[in-house]
Amino acid sequence: MIKVDEKGFYGKFGGAYIPEMLHPNIEELRENYEQIVASPEFQEEFQMLLRDFVGRPTPLYFAKRMSEKYGAKIYFKREDLCHTGAHKVNNTVGQIILAKKLGKKRIIAETGAGQHGVATATVCALMGMDCTIYMGALDIQRQRPNVERMRILGAKVVPATSGSQTLKDATNEAMRQWINNPVDTHYIIGSVVGPHPYPEMVARFQAVISEEIKKQLLEKEGTENPDILIACVGGGSNAAGTFYHYYNVPQVRLVAAEAAGLGVSSGKSAATTALGTPGILHGSKTLLMQTEDGQVVEPHSISAGLDYPGIGPVHAHLFDIGRAEFVAVEDEDAMKAGIELSRMEGIIPAIETAHAVHALNMIEFKKDDIIVINLSGRGDKDLDTYIKWGGY
Amino acid sequence: MNRIHTLFQNKKERVLSIYFTAGFPALEDTLPTMQAIESAGADIIEIGVPYSDPIADGPTIQDSNMIALENGMSLKKLFEQIKDMRQTVSIPVVLMGYLNPIIQYGMESFLKKCQEVGVDGLILPDLPMQQYLDEFKTLFEQYGLSNTFLISPQTSEQRIREIDEHSNGFIYMVSSHSITGAKTGITEAQIAYFKRVQAMNLKNPRLIGFGISDAETFGTASQYSNGAIIGSAFIKKVKDSKDLKADIHAYIKSVIQ
Question: Which GO terms describe its molecular function (chain B) (predicted)?
């Protein structure tokens, strides 16, 4: 049974390894979130916003041409059609309502590709809350359109200039700023990472993805259960949402696509389960890429959203017990998969998502297996990267 | 009884603890820095073990951590550098570090090594109290190491009491809602917090850290506690030092006057 325990552990992974200065914030959240989220007022507002603001349910789309090519029934869960262009907004809608109920006035968040930053800036605008986004200086350069979107929405974007200047460093910076402003500020973590209760809380807000897949697949195929689910994994929020209601349905194979960067053994990779060992990062025990001395290794991926040296503790657990299959997709293959999806189905995916699409070439399946790929985000924000890559 | 207990038995006020980053500014500066801190008249040495992702630290200490790592600093290297420190350093020595490098080294091997070289206590900011109690307390005791927890203005009275019960060296009072080096000076609100904790009559001595940088802030902090900890301000002084010993002496003397 895959389930978080009272102390926030999934098997060996999870917990809340935080400086004492954050203890009151985390306790406040832990003590209140389940009750708030379960309340009818919360649910009413959350469901209304998911429907009328985000545009849910998102379609489950049968990809005819790709199904013919690969010899399976391939469906795409169209999270790319969510308002703001990716699944990230499911979580920010949930957390902003929660922050309001906790009486917070100010929101901070980290972002990698900028999708979570945009989703956070969007809900802050919606609720009239002050918003500051921490983003690696390198990511600010490679995700320019998203930076400007956040600014248009009224958020302040602050560059994180330490380390590799990517998602890990933005997360460090957001945690530091939370320590500096513990009373009036809520930190909206964008992935299933961080100290308990964040990983489970974010997963629950994203679980709407698998809830809908179940219903939609039942209508289309007469079964709730696909043979295979595929999602990309950086921290792992879209994968957690895609897998959530299937964790304990063993006949459904779970496939997680990590970013191999220039190759798993190239020294320029973000394939955490392939290269990582147990350790502590951003408040939880998980698998992370590190040196023998326990220093965190700088990751690399062409996709800013997967450029993270750790992985959510639930995924470390799924890997540990063999419940999910992990494949490591190289930059070049992901880019080609992005082009293939564009040309065969008319959908330009985010480069993160393209990793999940390429996984079709790396796993075994039977003819006519039902495969659902979570199309976590659209490619508008990545046009610069596609153009620079140029292989189309 | 380790050196920390002896110190606080003999000295109840104006205890000065100096934090510095191991292997900074140059790799082999660790031991000379410790010797200079002692001869200048400080009471406790806190050795910062550098880490790639120090989430409770501001830019000054982040920067020193990064430079130390680039210099080739590691926990293994640190233990080599300080293996004979007790021949020249007699005041209490505390290691401050994030959990991950220690876990990779192995907690028990780490504690054993600390005892072997003469380290007296530990400050592990991201080791939560419950985890310490569940997994490590008996090991700390077995190797005679005291453990210091942090408290902040946000920490509830009940939790301060629990922390006091499980501490056996001193309590590290974070002076404000902040990471290290973020704010300087001491405000009315902070003084109210210092007084509130002072009135709790805790069994452990208290040192105030974060925002202490000179004789004035050291003096104010010492009025409401047993002394204070200086970190970022010290790192700034040694960063571009051409004469480490002279600069450390001049700075520490200016603080304790």
Answer: tryptophan synthase activity
Instruction: Give the domain-ending residue among A138, A173, A202.
Output: A202
pLDDT tens digit sequence for A23-44: 999 999 999 999 999 999 999 9
- Pick from A15, A21, A172: which is nearest to B150 by CB? A21
Confidence tier at A96 by pLDDT (50, 70, 90): very high
Whether residue B66 lies within 8 A of chain A, CB to CB, comes out as yes
List chain B residues with CB under 8 Å of A168.
53
A235-287 pLDDT, tens digit per residue, is 999 999 999 999 999 999 999 999 999 999 999 999 999 999 999 999 999 99
In the block, tokens 């200490």 appear at B61
Q: Is B75 an 8 Å CB contact of chain A? A: yes
Question: Predicted ipTM?
Answer: 0.92
Are A240 and A279 within one domain?
A: yes
The verdict on B244 touching A (C-beta cutoff 8 Å) is no
Helix (H, G, I), strand (E, B) or coil at A308: coil
| Structural tokens at position A59 | 């379609």
Domain at A279, CATH number? 3.40.50.1100
Averaged pLDDT, groups of 10, chain B, 257 residues long: 92 97 98 98 98 92 96 98 98 97 97 98 94 94 96 94 95 85 78 95 96 94 96 95 97 96
Checking DSSP bridges between strand A277-281 and strand A253-261, what pairing results, if any? unpaired
Strand partners, A254: A229, A324
Instruction: Tell me the residues of chain A between 316 and 345 that have a Cβ less than 8 Å away from chain B.
Output: none
pLDDT at B100: 97
**Contacts made by residues B239-247, CB under 8 angstroms, sequence distance 24+:** B239/B25, B239/B64, B240/B25, B241/B25, B244/B29, B244/B32, B244/B33, B244/B36, B245/B32, B245/B35, B245/B36, B245/B39
For residue B136, give the DSSP letter: I
Does residue A351 lie in a domain region?
A: yes
Range of the domain at B226: 13-148+213-256
Q: Do A280 and B126 touch (CB under 8 A)?
A: yes
Beta bridge partners of A230: A255, A373
> Are B114 and B95 within 8 A, CB to CB?
yes
- Nearest CA distance, B163 vs chain A (angstrom): 10
Q: If DSSP codes are grouped into helix, strand and coil, which group holds residue A257? A: strand
Active site residue B38: no
Contact A13, A287 (CB under 8 A): yes
Measured CA to CA, the distance from residue B198 to residue B205 in angstroms comes to 10
In this structure, are residues B245 and B236 in contact, taking their beta carbons and an 8 Å threshold? no
Q: Do A175 and A252 share a domain, yes or no?
A: no
Helices (H), chain B: 3-10, 30-40, 59-71, 75-81, 99-105, 107-117, 129-131, 137-142, 157-166, 188-198, 215-223, 232-239, 244-256
Q: Give a yes or no: residue A10 inside a domain.
A: no
Per the CB < 8 Å rule, is A21 touching B152? yes
Give the residue among A84, A82, A78, A79 at the shortest CA–CA distance from A63.
Answer: A78
Identity of the residue in B103, B159, B179 whose CB atom sits nearest the CB atom of A179:
B179
At B181 the pLDDT is 74
